[in-house]
């Protein structure tokens, strides 16, 4: 009987996890309603439990930091402007490279237009949701901080989905790790931390589910 009960609990947990995975969406538009602080802390806690490169961070317990910036704060206005200016520079550099590289000119069209839009209107997710969360991972050897940040943000994304909160990955944050003004606001030294970030809030609308191929279509077994 005990084994049967444990099996039922295991199946329930597995089904619940599948539901969270399938409900995960990238949200572009958020309501003004502010999520409870406890929810944001739960999301951060999920990020703390993500895998990390133990060899790179050695025995440093505080290798990962979370900086939560509220939408209507003065600091949000500052980081939004800093990020916008950075993306403008990136857009100009990419366009110059595209003029010299026919292959890049063809392949980077969509990305170039996206950068131009952000350079004009601001980076999506910074100031467009109740919270912008920057995650900082201490750099080390081997240099795998971005891989660790990816694990961290995935955990945070899934936890947000479990709380019916919207989540948007603000990948432009990764380009700000050397920016003195940006890092000063975060309270970290430029270049010492890998960065990435996300926007969190209640979704204005839920995008439709994206289709995925069947497992059998993308799996090869080697016995």
Automatic annotation (TrEMBL):
Gene3D superfamilies from the UniProt entry: NADH Oxidase
Organism: Methanobacterium veterum
Domain Nitroreductase: 22-202
GO molecular function: oxidoreductase activity
Protein's recorded name: Nitroreductase family protein
Keywords: Flavoprotein, FMN, Oxidoreductase
InterPro entries attached to this UniProt entry: Nitroreductase, Nitroreductase-like, Nitroreductase/BluB
């Amino acid at each position: 009987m005990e084994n049967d009960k444990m099996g039922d609990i295991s199946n329930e947990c597995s089904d619940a996890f599948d539901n969270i995975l399938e409900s995960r969406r990238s949200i572009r538009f958020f309501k003004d309603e502010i999520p409870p602080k406890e929810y944001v802390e739960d999301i951060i806690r999920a990020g703390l439990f993500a895998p990390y490169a133990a060899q790179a961070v050695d025995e440093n317990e505080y290798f990962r930091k979370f900086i939560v910036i509220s939408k209507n704060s003065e600091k949000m206005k500052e980081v939004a402007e800093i990020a916008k200016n950075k993306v403008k520079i990136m857009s100009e550099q990419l366009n110059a490279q595209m003029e010299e590289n026919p292959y890049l000119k063809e392949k980077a069209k969509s990305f170039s237009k996206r950068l131009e839009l952000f350079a004009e209107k601001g980076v999506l997710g910074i100031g467009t949701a109740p919270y912008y969360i920057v995650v900082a991972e201490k750099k080390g050897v081997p240099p795998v901080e971005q891989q660790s940040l990816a694990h961290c943000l995935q955990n945070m994304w899934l936890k947000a989905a479990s709380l019916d909160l919207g989540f948007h990955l603000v990948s432009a944050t990764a380009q700000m790790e050397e920016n003195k003004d940006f890092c000063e606001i975060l309270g970290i030294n430029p270049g010492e931390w890998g960065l990435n970030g996300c926007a969190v809030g209640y979704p204005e609308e839920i995008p439709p589910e994206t289709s995925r191929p069947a497992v059998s279509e993308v799996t090869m077994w080697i016995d």
